[in-house]
Amino acid sequence: xxxxxxxGSVVATQKDEKLENSKLLVCQVYDHKNQPKDQYVxxxxxxxxxxxxxxxxxxxxxxxxxTLTKDKPCDAVVIGIVDSWDLGGxxxxxxxxxx
Length: 99
Fold this sequence. Notes:
Layout: E1 2-10, E2 24-30, E3 36-45, E4 54-59, E5 76-81, E6 84-87, E7 90-94, H1 95-98
Parallel strand pairs: 3-5
Antiparallel strand pairs: 1-2, 1-4, 2-3, 4-5, 6-7
């Protein structure tokens, strides 16, 4: 699992039929210290995430392990919305105080 922040969405009217009704999110990758990287991923949303949410996402074959993405042509899926995380006893992120 990796951490990212939802920064937008993608609308694609022409796509593989297996992706119909899939919400596509633009996610900026973050490191473990809550610092943004200059890296982005487009992920299928499986949990109802929205812009500004910090999320957990999976890539590769793991991305096709959810009920929503099974047998679909996807390489990334949002699998959780982060409430908080700690690193070495220090709070790195708190959803309610960071927005």
